[in-house]
Amino acid sequence: MNHPGVTRQAFLKSLPVMAGYIVLGTGFGILLRNAGYGVLWAFAMSALIYAGSMQYVGVGLLTGGASLLSTALTTVMVNARHLFSSISMISRYQGAEKYKPYMIFALTDETYTLLSDSHVPEGADPHLYRFLVSLFNHSYWVLGSVLGSLLGAVLPFSTAGIEFSMTALFIASFTEQWITRRDHLPALTGLLSTLLCLLLFGPENFLIPAMLLITLVLTLVRRREEVSV
C-alpha cells in the first residue's frame, strides 16, 4: 500500500481518539492558562511531555512550587502504568527502526488501545501505520492544548472539576477494551489488585504497591501459560 493509503487508514483508525484528545487537551490548556502559563507553555508541554493525566497533575506542581524530587516521584507514580502497556508492545515494535523512538515516546493509553489489537490494513507497512496512528493522536493532543490556552485567554472559564476529564477517558478506554477483548484476566487483575492495595495502604500510598502486585500476578500468569504450552 502506498503512503497516502496508509496515512488515510491511520487517520481513520485515530478518529475515535481525536474527539477525546481535542476536548481533554482543551481542558488542559484552559487549566494551564488559568494558572498563569500561556500558549507556548501549553504547546511545549503537550509536544515534549505528552503525558495526559501527568500534565494535569503538572499544573498543580508548577503552581505549588514542587521540588524536582517531588515532581520526579509523582511522575513515576502517575506514569508507572505505561510499563505494562509498553512490555506488551515489544514484539509489535521490533524492526520499527527509525520509527521506534517516537513510537515509544508516543505510546499513551489511548494509542495502546488502538494498536493492541494487532490489526494492520492489508498491504500496509505495519511500522509506518503504527507510527502514523501515534503521530495523529499526538497532534490532536497538541492541537487541543493550544486551542484551550487560546480560549482561556479570551473567554472566562470555571476550571472546577475539569481534572476529572482524564479519569473519564480512562474509564472509557477500559470499557472499550473490556467489550472488545475476550480475555478479561488482565483487567480483573488490575481492578482487584488496586482495590486490595487501596484498602491496605490508603488513597495516598496505594499506587506503587498496586503496580507491583499487578506486575507480579501477570508475570506469574504468563509464565504459567508458557509452561503449559
Helix-strand pattern = HHHHHHHHHHHH
Distance between the termini: 36 Å
Stretches with pLDDT under 50, minimum 5 residues: none
Q: Which overall shape is indicated by the principal axes computed on the Cα atoms?
A: globular
Number of DSSP helical runs: 12
Q: Can you summarize the main beta sheet?
A: none
Radius of gyration: 19 Å
**What is the residue-averaged pLDDT?**
83
Strand content: under 5%
Domains, number: 2
Can you tell me about this structure?
By secondary structure, the protein is mainly α. The protein folds into two domains: 3-163, no CATH class; 182-229. Helices cover 77% and strands 0% of the residues. The protein has helices at 3-34, 39-49, 53-64, 68-79, 82-88, 90-93, 100-105, 109-115, 126-154, 164-180, 185-201, 207-228. The chain is globular, with a radius of gyration of 19 Å. The two termini are 36 Å apart.
